[in-house]
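Q: Here's a chain of 1359 amino acids. Please give me its 3D structure as tokens.
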Amino acid sequence: MSAEQVSGLCEQLVKAVTVIMDPASTQRYRLEALKFCEEFKEKCPICVPCGLKLAEKTQTAIVRHFGLQILEHVVKYRWNNMPRLEKVYLKNNVMGLISSGTQSILEEESHIKDVLSRIVVEMIKREWPQHWPDMLKELDTLSKQGETQTELVMFILLRLAEDVVTFQTLPTQRRRDIQQTLTQNMEKIFSFLLTALQQNVNKYRCMVGAPQEQEVLTTPQKTDLAQEPKEGSWYCSSGNGLLLMFFCGSDLVPSLCSQAQANCRVGIAALNTLAGYIDWVALSHITADNCKLLEMLCLLLNEPELQVGAAECLLIAVSRKGKLEDRKPLMVLFGDIAMHCILSAAQTADGEGLVEKHYVFLKRLCQVLCALGSQLCALLGSDCDVETPANFGKYLESFLAFTTHPSQFLRSSTQITWGALFRHEVLSHDPLLLAVVPKYLRASMTNLVKVGFPSKADSPSCEYSRFDFDSDEDFNAFFNSFRAQQGEVMRMACRLDPLTGFQMAGEWLKYQLTAPVDTGSVNCRCCSTRTYQAAVEEHGESSSVLFLSAKTGEGLCSIFSPSFVQWDAMTFFSESVISQMFRTMDKDEIPVNDGIDLLQLVLNFETKDPLILSCVLTNVSALFPFVTYRPEYLPQVLSKLFASVTFEVVEESKIPCIWLNFCFVSLKFVVSVQAPRTRAVKNVRRHACSSIIKMCRDYPQLVLPNFEMLYNHVKQLLSNELLLTQMEKCALMEALVLISNQFKDYERQKAFLEELMAPVAGLWLSPEMQRVLSDPEAFISYVGADNKIADPVLEDPSGLNRSRISFCVYTILGVVKRARWPAATEEAKAGGFFLGYLPSGTPMYRNPCTEQVLKLFDNLLALIRWQQVQWHCSFGGGCRICAVCSWRHPEWRSEVSKERGRTHNNLYMPEMVARLGDTFAKALDMLDVEKNAILGLPQPLLELYDSPVYKTVLERMQGFFCTLYDNCFHILGNAGPSMQQDFYTVEGLATQLLSSAFNNLNNIPDYRLRPMLRVFVKPLVLSCPSEYYETLVCPMLGPLFTYLHMLLLGSPCIMSRFNLSFCLEQRLSQKWQVINQRSMLCEDDAADDNPESQEMLEEQLVRLLTREVMDLATVCCVSKKGVEQNTTAAVDGDVLGKSRSQCSLCSADDEAMATEVTPPANAELTELGKCLMKQEDVCTAVLITAYTSLSWKDTLSCQRTTTQLCWPLLKQVLSGNLLPDAVSWFFTSVLKGLQVHGQHDGCMAALVHLAFQIYEALRPRYGELKAVMEQIPDIQLDSLEQFDSKLLNPTLQKVADKRRKDHFKRLISGCIGKPIGEQFRKEVHIRNLPSLFKKVKPSLETDVLENEDGEGFNVLFEP
């Protein structure tokens, strides 16, 4: 086309771009203009001349950018079809634009520079080095034309490294060719980068620095980083490091000022480019020329405009991994000059005040020091002949300075390195490090104080926290993690010097015991309490005078109160160092007298503040090991704990005071019913109970001599029904049961448990309780769920009835969990616990609690059965599991019918639902704390302690139903491990469990079904011996898995094999379908009555329930290490710990996907799995459940199921006669999973591996699999034929396993899902060029094998 046509078209494009970018344009015009521009780029044959015309620097920046975008589009999408001359023409013109078609470096827009560099890199990716061998020379020539061109060359080199190495956005062969060529030329590239950096920095310094300052980055003046600093050298010229005169404040002429800025800009670009290469080039380039690069980077740390980029490069270099010998030169950074550069830069940046740029620089320097410490730990003690650096002491002091910095983030960044130093086999014995241990512990005392909330101003840390955290909740989560990490490091430090840590803890504890209490204010803006650290600084460590009572000010402490944060930090410190002292020191070296003195001070301390008292109790527990040396102090400890069990804030009460004498100590217990207890008070009482349980669990022999006194005291407390909560009563009973385990006499312990549980048995088996538990209507009335409360805050007439039921259930759970036989077999035999051995060789014991618990078992199952019915009444529907049971086991039909007649007759009557009063219409809903735990929302900080446990009677009712439901299933889950064969051999146990625990499952909400599977079914399966699989586990799991399968979406062709006369609601599948549909709807289509938070809650619940179901199937069927231990730990939590709902949800958001996942090669079915798979209906149910879940939108469940469950299950049935439709369905399910989860590398790798296993194992027998493969989009049929021919022809040589997998992955690539951002992206095709690095196979000469004399083979094997 003529120039006039190009100009005319360009004018139209300029108008279109103007319309697109004009804010005043209407949407219609903007869309038309955009369509015109896009069609031009796709179809116009003269894009190159038009793009070049628009890219001229006479155009506006917007038009120039669009012109360059046209050229980039041509290179990316048309390059393969362009004639060679046109390619050369485009390349030359683009290089011309870089040479003379851009503005000066300070005037040119950054987006123009970026798109120019992209165009060049796109051409390099397609032509270099084969067709453009002189590319590096051309770039070098361009860089000599000026700062603008040099900066653009830096951008090109950086983007090239990112595309080729970091992001790997081009085909494998091209990437290999370019990367190898870069590696071959890396010495030239580094020389170019260092020269450019050196020249521009020196020019910049000459223009902005003092006239007497000399160039320090020139090669002749190269400085050895390890040498001693000399007087008069550049960094000492003024005593404070580099003295720069910023150009913006100087009197330089404007031209010099602009030139200085240009040189600085090039220096920054060079540092950024170096950062892109240092991470992956050979370490020899980084350490070349006596570590010249590291030297330059250290010098630039004191250059304000370049220091951040220099620190980034230095951090990447010091963090490099690789061979230890190659990393040895990095130790030069421990030299005098290098260390001085780092420390002086840090001091200067910190002295400038809190400026974001300086703060970021400090973070980088801190990371550099951390990486240096890691390198030292790796090299020292290895075979690299590295010694402790001479400046190790200076390094530790500087590192300690970061640990004491006001920024909580900087403090936390140092902890991992401190831990590595303290546990290093060589450095841990170094005198310099041992001398720092007390300083570190002293710094930790300050760091443990929880201050620095972004919303406050009571600490210098607050200002830094506003840079690092968005809210107080974010800071609180961070600080909790930081404190836990610091506790671990403190314990490592105390292994090196345990006595020092103990002395510090003692002094701090004494100070807090005498300090006046300052409650402060929730929104205080300043801290008026003088801390222990400040007192030590002022008067020394031994200046405190002890008083045994705190001066309580008005009101009580909150979690933000100055006194509490000090108490909290001191308590954590003491607990950490004292526990480590007992682990580290010999018994003879323990300072018993000092520990007992501290214990006496703590026991004599009195306070009415619940938060402080909770800290006091923790200190009592921490110091309790000293009592093992002085048992006479045990009564005082028990007195302190029992006084806290009945702690109340209110001084007077309507209930008469109870005076109890215990070990000559008079205790007064005051109870109030006038106001609800706050969480802080509740936590104190729970804390005391937990401490007693822990003491009885860890030191039973110490407490055993005082058992009778302890028992009598507990009986006195239990005699008053209102003195303790039901959980507190049961906690004290648990402590007694733990001590009774030390009787080691079956008859004695049995008699004691019978006496202990007599009140519970009398209440639980009373006619009134049996009537309540057998009649749903009576139960609703008994617990008060049908009441209409006028005052929902204070009025609760049925609270006592609920507490009695809770007391019985708590007690049964506590006894079942805690009662045990002696661990030693000989002691068990002598005490009458041992019964013999099972056929498998497993020893059998009898539990002394068995008789008492089994007496209460029928009413417990009745309660569970009613609760299942209750959910029915609340959510509607009917029982389904009973139909499955009676279908599979006809002999159970009469029993099931009888149970249904007793419990289900009135389920469908409207008056049953109406029995719930208006006040308690939502009594069966989830608690807010459960919702927050599922959604990952933190509890408001103040509500954790200052609010009542339950604000309204509705919340109390919700908590009652929730806890009762969980505890009932905890009892069933613990019954097997506790009572063993006495429980497994209960007559008709499977029938009873099916008619109670598994009754009405279809109407149990997700948030109740999930804990049932976790705390009951899974522990029962794991603990049950194989002898009882046939009689208990299989009859129970068979209907359960069949039910769960029928809730999932099955295959019609497989379902037709069973003549099921019932149709179950497809629960999980329907919910996943709703989730999928919801994700495709617009926000406008969402229902107003279903807010986003509720949708998120429902989706997360479905996801969690899916994981629980699949985990249960895995536990039952596949042998997997770690399951039993994890489950046991989850089930065996203390009753007084955090709520079980929170425990079960703590890992709900664990979505981390591994990049490469392969199923374990030795994954086999368990004995239980084989037993279940023998039953055809159960086998079908488990298989369909596993393979259906692969296409649900839960990556974690998909990955676990794929790697652990799917192949072992399918492998078990391969030898049978599978229907062709079933085989196709299994394979299709895996491909569907790939379509949904293919965007996640971990899931994709696992699913491809599973699909490959299925196809390779079943393709020879089932030709239908090929038909499935042919339906995959964009599959190459000739490649499929080639793969099949090799697979089906055993005579052909087998290809390597990896090559076959890669071939198969390419075949199914059309069904592998992509991220949403890549699904509609236009495909970029980069052709491979002739390889530069072909491996030439050595030719096999015939005369080597056989020469004329026929002695070829003989020659080969001659010595």
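Q: Can you summarize the key feature?
A: The mean pLDDT is 81.
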